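Thread: Glucose-6-phosphate 1-dehydrogenase, structure

OP (GT): Posting the sequence first so everyone is looking at the same thing. Length is 487 residues per the record. Can we get the structure tokens written out before standup tomorrow? I want them in the notebook alongside the other entries.
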Amino acid sequence: METDSSFTFVLFGGTGDLSMRKILPALFEAHRAGGMLADSGKIVAVARHAADRGEYIQWVNEHVKPHVSKNGVDEAAWSSFLERIEFVKIDLGNPEDFALLRDAVKDLPGIRVFYLATGPSLFVPICRALASVGLNENARIVLEKPLGYDLKSSNAINDAVGEIFAEEQIYRIDHYLGKEPVQNLLALRFGNALFEPLWRREWVESIQITIAEELGVEARGDFYDNTGALRDMVQNHLLQLLSIVAMEPPHSMDSDSVRDEKLRVLRALKPIDPLNIGKVAVRGQYHAGGIRGTAVPAYATEPGVKPNSTTETFVALKVEIENWRWAGVPFFLRTGKRLADRVAEIVVNFRAVPHSALGVSALRAGANRLVIRLQPNETIRLYCLAKQPGEGMNLASVHLDLAFDQFFREGQMEAYQRLLLDVINGRLALFVRRDEQEAAWRWVEPILNEWKASNKPPKPYAAGTWGPAAASAMLAQHGTCWLEEEN
Ligand code: BG6
């Protein structure tokens, strides 16, 4: 069935890395699937590194095609996809060029989506130039992260964009919110009466949220060195995951009900006490090491990174939420590059039984735990204790598994595909509202400030490990450890 939501999708940064790896492949997948994009929908790429449409299409063939459909490209779908693409050469430093864009889109149908896959320094000039040629009407604007560098710069961008576009027209992307398993977290929590009564301080001892990467900074050394893991991953992805794990049940799934509840969590985060920061925050930087048998260089020798850089590539935090549901429950957040594995997961450690008639082993860890694996291999695993077969009452840790790819063999959608379809169809729930973003910056900023003021270098860790030992010591203070340390 064909959707009737016609659109003109204008892609700024049309020859950039994000367009190449994520945005154009996601649009292609939606096109290939059929029925998701209106036939009349057009993509208008804006760039200055191509002379004309022919050259741009050649670039798309060379650079985008390798990133689509791992199982081979459907050639017929690919050529009909290319027919959707128009091209406008614009020098973004030259606002007069926007008249060319206005002329290119004026007769195209449907809602206009302006996707700013550019650096944040261009957000405001592009919005102003769009307004100067009247293109802010009947339009949605998509802003990629990072949106600013701190609260002040993010407010400056939001204020300026807010003068041109209403909040309902602004789609701030956090691609983690588009991931299928993150959606599933909502289904798990609010679709099952089983978990919700246990989802609180009386039954939960601690929660871990990890986003670990094997990759280093790739070709983004320059950007990353001015950013660091706290801004790149914690301020957005990790705090968004935390807010979904910890939020109260929303009254409905409409965009503001969900975002209101997430906001309440962000506002209830216990402020970090600068005097105590060493106990609740660990920052690290990778040195040379090996990932799966391959030697990898130190962060400080990566292209674009300053040799004496003190930027963190690893962060672990202990976070508390000051409300009735979560008071006193530590949430341990962790992210890092060049770690031992690529994994994103949420570990809910429930409290042990208060008294064991079955002997001490019934009190031990390895049971009473829910592990929600977001990637790779989306799985929900519930650890319990069971009796080992045979004589006597010997207990062993066992698990119940729900592996999503086995249960639902098809229909999985990449995060960008879902989010782009949401923009085209005007669904805001999976986009970050301004007040959420501000609350996240407000909480993160004292950590950034304290790290800067103390001028201490990050703790070293060898690439291919799980980060600095201090991250384990932080959990040990609470009588617990990271999940992989138990296995
Ligand atoms: C991005 C960060 O937002 O998320 C990158 O800027 C990071 O540094 C990436 O590698 C991780 O996303 P994913 O989907 O690969 O887990």
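GT: Both are above now. Quick notes for whoever picks this up: The chain has a mean pLDDT of 93. The chain has two domains: 7-144, 177-414+430-486.
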